[in-house]
């Protein structure tokens, strides 16, 4: 029996060591630059005028003790054109330090809160905001709220988010929602989606301290040195260090790791809301590295290595990582394109190391002359009759519903936008539909499809934390839900205004 126990112990130890070795190998981050396999060049050429530039500096705490980095940042700020914004992306240097740097530039300076700012509590945050304001540096969002809009110009908007507001345990900060109309985390997600709807025709930047994806320490990627020295006081802990990092990469040791419960909920919901949008960029810090990561339509820049640097790695084909001190500069162009430049500090100077395109020029649609003989009306149905036919057995179990009404053909007037001077403004994503907002010289209208979208319903209710709408197209689930929607009369909204008027309830006409 003793030999058998020793055998199992030996196997378990061997298995654990093998597991830890695998983690070390596959999560190996480095300080040297890494590039995804789709990145074949360091340079990008965009033939358009720059409409705005953003200088991104993160984790500048302790900058006053690093004269070389201070000098390098000051040199860069002196070069910043007037149509620029300076973003200090959390865990910031003192107001006196950044106020001194502010004198080097005519560009506007903005501060974002990180976990360091929140450590001293709510009242301290209010005091810090006042001290930065006295140095002509605006804190975003102001008054310690979840989200605030900054309209840069007609083609560019910034949604400033206090991500630590979301991650904090509000029981430790009873005043967290005191000056904020957004009283719950769920309302924050609703507000974010509404704001993105409002600015869907502009390049929209989400600026906040915490990234939604990262291949640095907080994202569970560690260097060989991190495996041996998991604690910053440099006590060697081989094996134990790898185990600690494994826990951190899978469950998150603190609320600041991406795999922690609340942080994971935050990143998944934000990523899902962005899912269908191609006009969104995310600026963050948190991890002390320089990174560009792209996952679908999520385009994430991390610039958190202003003073200190930690290792990072590349995971995606379009990713870039750099584990050295430096900063990122983003340029947005008149044609809708944008790129990011990364710089490392060398001898008190910023040295360019990499440029990467993020958004491509917007599509230009040429004017098209349509057939002038378009009929004044067209006969249509909500759903094609052939898609409504069900067997008697099916109707026995699920009912007849209003399928026959959905298949009725009726004439619909052709809407001549040019003749009526009506122009489309934007689309609105709702629970079951994607609506189109229209406007003429006096009034605003909303065009709402009678036929609801099953995939939109699935996305809105069942998969808030993951973008899956495309995965359900032409599936049994989509077909079943589309049929289930025939339980509701398709034209019931037409009688609502009359009923509302009778009972004296305000109603859009």
Word description of this protein:
- The chain is α/β, with parallel strands linked by helices and 509 residues long.
- 29% of the residues lie in helices and 23% in strands.
- The strands form four sheets. The chain has an eight-stranded mixed beta sheet, with helices on one face. It has a seven-stranded mixed beta sheet with strand order 5-4-3-2-13-14-15. The protein has a three-stranded antiparallel beta sheet with strand order 18-19-20.
- α7 runs parallel beside α10.
- The longest helix is centred in the first third of the chain and has 25 residues, at 2-26.
- The mean pLDDT is 86.
List the uncertain runs. Answer: none
- First CA to last CA: what distance? 83 Å
Radius of gyration: 27 Å
Mean pLDDT: 86
Helix content: 25-40%
- Provide a count of the helices: 15
Category from helices, strands and their pairing: alpha/beta
Structure summary, number of beta strands: 20
State the shape. globular
Q: How many strands, which pairing sense, and closed or not: the largest β-sheet?
A: 8 strands, mixed
With strands numbered from the N-terminus, the spatial order across the biggest sheet is: 1-12-10-11-9-8-7-6
Strand content range: 15-25%
Topology (elements, then pairings):
Elements lengths: L1 H25 L7 E2 L14 E8 L9 H13 L4 E5 L6 H8 L5 E5 L2 H5 L2 H13 L2 E4 L6 E7 L2 E6 L1 H5 L17 H14 L4 E5 L16 H5 L11 H11 L10 H14 L5 E5 L5 E6 L2 E6 L16 E3 L3 E8 L4 E9 L2 E11 L17 E4 L11 H7 L4 H4 L3 E4 L9 E7 L4 E6 L4 E4 L6 H8 L14 H9 L11 H7 L7
Parallel strand pairs: 2-3, 3-4, 4-5, 7-8, 8-9, 9-11
Antiparallel strand pairs: 1-12, 2-13, 6-7, 10-11, 10-12, 13-14, 14-15, 16-17, 18-19, 19-20
Helix pairs in contact: 7-10
């Amino acid at each position: 029996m003793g030999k058998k126990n020793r055998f199992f112990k030996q196997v378990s130890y061997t298995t654990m060591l093998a597991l830890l070795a695998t983690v070390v190998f596959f999560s190996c981050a480095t300080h040297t630059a890494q590039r995804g396999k789709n990145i074949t060049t360091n340079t990008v050429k965009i033939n358009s005028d720059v409409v705005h530039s953003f200088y991104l500096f993160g984790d500048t705490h302790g900058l006053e003790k690093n004269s070389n980095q201070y000098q390098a940042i000051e040199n860069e700020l002196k070069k910043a054109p007037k149509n620029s914004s300076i973003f200090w992306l959390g865990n910031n240097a003192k107001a006196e330090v950044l106020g001194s740097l502010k004198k080097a530039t005519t560009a506007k300076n903005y501060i974002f809160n990180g976990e360091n700012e929140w450590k001293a509590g709510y009242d301290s945050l209010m005091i810090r905001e006042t001290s930065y304001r006295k140095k002509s540096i605006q804190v975003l969002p102001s008054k310690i709220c979840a989200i605030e809009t900054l309209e840069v110009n007609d083609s560019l908007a910034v949604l400033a988010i206090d991500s630590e507001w979301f991650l904090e345990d509000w029981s430790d900060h009873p005043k967290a929602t005191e000056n904020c109309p957004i009283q719950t985390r769920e309302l924050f997600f609703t507000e974010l989606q509404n704001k993105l709807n409002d600015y869907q025709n502009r390049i929209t930047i989400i600026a906040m301290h915490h990234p939604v994806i990262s291949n640095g320490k907080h994202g569970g990627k560690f260097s060989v040195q991190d495996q041996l020295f998991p604690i910053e006081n440099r006590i060697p802990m081989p094996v134990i260090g790898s185990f600690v990092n494994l826990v951190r990469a899978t469950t998150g040791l603190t609320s600041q790791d991406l795999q922690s419960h609340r942080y994971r909920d935050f990143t998944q919901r934000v990523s899902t809301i962005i899912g269908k949008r191609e006009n969104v960029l995310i600026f963050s810090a948190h991890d002390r590295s320089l990174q560009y990561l792209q996952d679908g339509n999520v385009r994430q820049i991390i610039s958190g290595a202003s003073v200190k640097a930690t290792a990072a790695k590349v995971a995606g084909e379009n990713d870039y990582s750099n584990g050295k001190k430096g900063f990122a500069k983003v340029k947005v162009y008149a044609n809708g394109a944008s790129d990011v430049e990364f710089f490392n500090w060398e001898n008190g100077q910023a040295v360019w190391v990499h440029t990467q395109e993020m958004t491509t020029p917007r599509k230009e649609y040429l004017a098209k002359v349509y057939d002038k003989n378009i009929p004044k009306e067209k006969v249509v149905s909500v759903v094609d009759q052939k898609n409504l036919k069900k067997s008697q057995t099916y109707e026995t179990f699920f009912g007849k519903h209003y399928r026959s009404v959905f298949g009725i053909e009726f004439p619909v007037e052709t809407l001549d936008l040019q003749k009526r001077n009506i122009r489309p403004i934007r689309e609105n994503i709702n629970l079951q539909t994607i609506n189109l907002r229209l406007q003429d010289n006096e009034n605003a209208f909303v065009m709402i499809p009678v036929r609801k979208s099953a995939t939109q319903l699935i996305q809105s209710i069942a998969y808030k934390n993951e973008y899956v709408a495309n995965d359900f197209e032409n599936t049994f689930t989509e077909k079943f839900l589309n049929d289930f929607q025939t339980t509701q009369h398709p034209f019931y909204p037409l009688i609502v205004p009359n009923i509302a008027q009778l009972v004296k309830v305000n109603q859009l006409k």
